[in-house]
Amino acid sequence: MTVKPHLRLKFYEKERQLFGKAYSLYTSDHNAEIIVKKLLRHFAPKLPQKRWMEIRFYGNGGARAFMGWTWGIRFPHNPDFGTICHEVAHLVNYEKYGKFRHDKRLLRTIKQLLDYCEKKSFWHLGTTAIQIEEILGDETS
Ligand SMILES: [Zn+2]
Fold this sequence. Notes:
This protein has 141 residues and is mainly α. The protein is built from five helices and three strands. The chain has a three-stranded mixed beta sheet, covered by helices on one side. α3 packs across α4. It is globular and about 35 Å long. Residues 1, 86, 90, 102 line the site of zinc ion.
């Protein structure tokens, strides 16, 4: 999604002010993929099922959510929770409002997703290997 650079910067500053700790808590590609699917199932259950979904991890750069013939998210390896919830929030808001905007509604959705991660103890996936199976079960799809 292309946004005027100064607006994007302002949005990211606000985001880090509000949800700071989420941006320094990282998880593995594998866990991130499971978390993304759980978040989408809960917050965007009607997201097009028939289109091919792509959740990819590469490099250490930026993340991007997209919606078209295919839809999905590209993440850097071992993404942080702030980035995970930001990109999932784009898809959730696209389903709700048909927009990819960086606005207050996106901040609200990010907050909901982060709260859900906290409630479900997904945070621990960033730190404690033993708890991973307890929290996620044997779900791998
Ligand atoms: Zn964004």
